[in-house]
Design goal:
By secondary structure, the chain is of the alpha+beta class. The chain is built from nine helices and 15 strands.
């Protein structure tokens, strides 16, 4: 059996057993989805960062994840900027981050390239400061994590002479801690110590729970747009034939169908995105509208599509029942 076939089988098992602790890395977009070990020339120390080089951000991420994957505290500290290392609670936060991180990393999506904001250093009127930041997902053989990592590539000193080159912000969270819409602010996050060094705000945070019941899926029209969906466990389904019978110009008719069905999954932050089961198929029905509240006169279906979420984005054969472009 080929590696691709194995991935498809595993993914279908995930859908059947409702994501019982397995990695969901095989149903996210193929472009820019790569484990850190495949990134060329990862940095092993912030001292190696040169803002004239290419793939600065990716190489910083790769080096940082390697140390996290190995549980290497001394190595991880080599990637953190001096300002972050000098903060009083950093050692405690690093211990918590490494102690709670489960499994071996199998994949990451999406690691961006060298994107970021270039501003002028406080101590120079003409030397730019290259600050890069991105959010992505890290998959291990035991858990799925949301990661936010900011880094600075050019030395930027404040009045105290602190160094900001390296990782300036590192957040690692399980999906439930990041995306649980029902959690109170105290449940979802904790106070984070921050310190501004030059143009960068330094901080480190880890929050661990359980990502079971959440999936990272691409249901949009762009491969780089990943949504985290919260599974409902429903067995309800709608047929392709009944989808085609709906008069999508009649909002009451649309409301009657989709307000009356239990969705397969709902996005973490977008209540008007829903995923339904398609009867007699492993495919899902993705519906996007302005909202689903009954009686809202502004209700408007944007598009309805049938997608196979077990396929990588580039291999998906999407069928538009209602084409929002029209």
């Amino acid at each position: 059996m080929t590696r691709y076939n194995i991935r498809i089988v595993l993914t279908l098992c995930i859908l059947v057993f409702m994501c019982m602790g397995c990695s969901v890395s095989d149903i996210v977009p193929e472009p820019e989805s790569q484990t850190y070990s495949k990134i060329e020339k990862p940095y092993t120390d912030k001292a190696e960062i040169d803002h004239h080089q290419e793939n600065i951000y990716k190489r910083t991420v790769a080096g940082t994840l390697r140390y996290i994957d190995n549980g290497d505290k001394a190595g991880l500290k080599k990637m953190l900027c001096k300002g972050l290392n000098d903060m009083k609670d950093t050692d405690v936060e690093i211990d918590a981050l490494l102690d709670g991180f489960k499994g071996d990393i199998t994949d990451t999506t999406y690691i961006s390239g060298d994107l970021g904001a270039r501003t002028y250093a406080q101590w120079s009127k003409d030397e730019p400061v290259a600050c890069y930041e991105s959010e992505f997902y890290v998959y291990t053989d035991k858990e799925t994590y949301f990661v936010e990592l900011d880094m600075c590539a050019v030395n930027d000193k404040d009045v105290d002479g602190k160094d900001s080159v390296g990782v300036t912000k590192l957040y690692v969270m399980t999906l439930d801690k990041k995306y649980d819409a029902d959690a109170t602010p105290n449940d979802a996050s904790k106070d984070v110590e921050t310190k501004t060094v030059g143009t960068s705000q330094c901080s480190i945070l880890s929050e661990y729970g359980d990502s079971e019941g959440y999936q990272v899926l691409n249901t949009s029209t762009e491969w780089s747009d990943n949504d985290v969906w919260k599974l409902t466990g429903t067995k309800d389904s709608i047929s392709s034939e009944n989808l085609k019978k709906i008069d999508y110009s009649d909002e009451n008719a649309v409301r009657k169908v989709f307000n009356g069905m239990e969705p397969y999954a709902i996005t973490e932050s977008d209540s008007h995105c829903r995923l339904y089961n398609l009867s007699g198929s492993d495919k899902k029905v993705h519906v996007y509208s302005d909202n689903y509240y009954e009686g809202d006169e502004n209700y408007k279906v944007k598009f309805v599509q049938i997608i196979d979420i077990s396929e990588l984005y580039g291999k998906q054969d999407r069928e538009y029942i209602y084409n929002y472009k029209k």
